[in-house]
# Entry
Amino acid sequence: MDTILHSIWPIVRDGLPNTVLLTLGLLGLGLALGFPIAFAQVYGYRPLRWACKGYEQFFRGVPALVLILLLHSGLARSFHILLPTFASGLIALGLRSSAYQSQIFRGAIQAVHPGQMIAARSIGMSKWQAIRHIVLPQAFRLSIPPWTNEYSSVLKDTSLVSAIGVVEMMKKTMLLMPTVQYREGAKWILMLLIVAALVYLLLTYAGNMGLGLLERRVRLPGFEMTGKVER
Amino acid sequence: MTGESTNDIVLRAQDIHKTYGDLEVLRGVSCELARGETKVVIGPSGTGKSTLLRCINQLTIPDSGRVWLGDTEITCKDCDINAVRAQIGFVFQDFNLFTHLTALQNVRIGPMRVKKMDRPTATRLAVEELERVGLGDKAGAYPAELSGGQKQRVSIARALAMFPQLILFDEPTSALDPELIGEVLEVMISLAKEGMTMLCVTHEMGFARTVADEIIFMEGGIILEQGAPDRLFSNAREPRTREFLNKITELYGE
Amino acid sequence: MGFFEFAADILPRLLAATGVTLEITAGSMTLGLIIGVLLALGRVYGARPVRWVTNVYIQFFRGTPLLVQLLIVYYGLSPYFRMAGLRLSPLVAAIAALGLNSAAYQAEYLRGAIQAVRSGQMMAARAVGMSRVQAIRHVILPQAFRLVIPSWSNELIYSIKYSSLAYFISLSELTFVGKKVALNTARTFEAYLVVAAIYLVIVVIVSRLLTMLENRIRIPGLGVSRAHR
# Structure
């Protein structure tokens, strides 16, 4: 039991930084790529829309783990491009997140009532003005709940980069398992893993609360997730 | 409600055709509006009345036909349709207020973004227009906090803030509960009396009789008959017109 | 050797492993369905303690990484199994962990679907004389199951992809074998591309099949809403 308690600190000390960095980096990369892709899918020309759809389909169909391995050992052995493990994980999962985030933003943009665009055009706004001043502000609010979901997804996926050796929380936990087994016996591995799980749980709650605050800050009276106006 | 025909024709629509799929909704409709005139379009559902309005400000592109705003044709290929729309007000059946903006911001955004007015001037203008429709105290309210009648009045204020040459009303009271219709009609009547040029699709015969210079009866995608309200109500030429007017008065009262 | 010839070369080994992947998926989805339905019913209709327990379960399995859950089952629980004289195989562990995880998500989707069935339906059922259980069984659940199909389809796709986590416990599913094959050759990148392609093909086929199924059993007027994982 002692070792378990002593393990909490190392997990946090050695693993948490990378977990948090990865999570933020993935969300950021996903956002930076995902939003333009969503935009292109809603407002772009057909071939562009097709390309975006293909991008989305690829990243929704291939497991995150395969992407990580592909990018890291695939590039390294086939093309002699050896990326640092952190970078490989970041790029692989970041691209993946961008595909999911593009879906979120696309859904949000399309959920804005078409009447809003029509009304904007009817007072003489150009399409771009309407998008910028009327559609996007509403789409932004609509995308917060699903984006909170994505945060949770991304946080959990960071555990997969342990496969290529990045020392984040999962890898650290795995590294500690033999020690626990030696010191306390195999039966205590369960406890260690549950502790690790709880740290993730805490991070999930912290993030959800933060995003919940954001949602409340930008909330509009009566403006629910459906984006429909009450009569 | 000036009733005078001047040579100042604000709107002219000529031979508008529009087909949706198999259905030809507008089969060659023409009409004209002089400055200060108020005309009301009536007819059974689905006869293309709303489509006509939308074809006028090009929210729907007609298949053929031409429209002039004053001396300028607006149905040409290279026309700056945004500039045109800034001069034509449009009031929707579903209000379509911008849900993320307060009443004030809703009215102000057109002048600010389209006409590039500066914020203080636009704000003053917006407050004025809101007060004109009786909602000066609701400037800070969001659409979800307003009743249907209030929403529609904000919607009218939003159109007015652009100083349009004419306003198109697309069944402005059809989505409202009966008690709320009155406040909207009041605003519309006072606008008409002030000399605004208006083209309204509506069932409200009381309104038509009070301020309309002409009633246009549409059925099956064409104009069956048009004329001054008094004449139409007492002495319509076409049997269908008479039939329809009777039914309408029965249902909606005078 | 061109790419396609290379792919054809390594395909046999990979396809054999794909069988294991599909086994894991089938097993975990079934387990997830059974437990998920129970959890959902508990969440919606249960007494307070029941609702609390199911909520804790769902929060835990949705809030922690699947990898941790898998390791908990395989490394954490196996000492206890050994005590009982049983052996926990990686395949069973994978199905169990994925199944328990999937159950949490399926429960949430089903709960949403149950709550989306209008309250008037329950009232009408009771008014006709049905007991609560009968109403749930004959009126609510049939509608809820139809509503939940899009989300369930989504979950199935996820299961196919997350079966890859069995890599971490050395189970010979597609990703694990794929890695072996990939490291066996200098054309590692292409090998992994083939692996990715196989997953893609499976996912696309399954999606199409599910869409066809959805259309087959659609009832006019019974709205369908999409939930996201």
Q: What stands out?
A: Chain B has two domains: 1-87+165-254, 97-163.
